Predict the 3D structure of the following.
Amino acid sequence: MSNRTFTMIKPDAMKNGHAGAILDRIIKEGFRVVALKMTKLSEEKAGEFYAIHRERPFFGELVEFMSSGPIIAAILEKENAVSSFRTLIGATNPANADEGTIRKLFATSVGENAVHGSDSDENAAIEGAFFFSGLEQI
Ligand code: CMP
């Protein structure tokens, strides 16, 4: 079990002014920030990041949304990071997210759901490497 996960604060949460509150919550929950940057994905890069969803009906919408504005990307460290972080953010659809979770508090819809969290240790490593070189991870 790896102790790292990868997250993005998505364009909806950035636009709605929730980035500070989300980062504050993540740090208060005991995650150490290993790497962090604000950036904006091109449609091409967003499609590459979410390539696993290419055949899904919502792929076009997902790519358009994820390239619609700035995001914050970060690698986080904590014991059982992937599952611990997924518990903190709540269900993909905020309508199904538990009270107090980041998506319950800050997400708008299943598409515009405030944050991304890796779903496995393997994907956490792939997704972290998509945004950060080894030198950028401290
Ligand atoms: P994320 O955890 O970043 O990984 C894939 C994303 O696809 C997911 O969050 C949602 O934002 C998005 N997604 C999943 N299901 C739907 C859907 N039915 N409609 C639009 N977007 C979706």
Observations:
- The CA atoms of residues 79 and 115 lie 20 Å apart.
- DSSP finds seven helices and four strands in the chain.
- The beta strands are 4-9, 32-39, 71-77, 115-117.
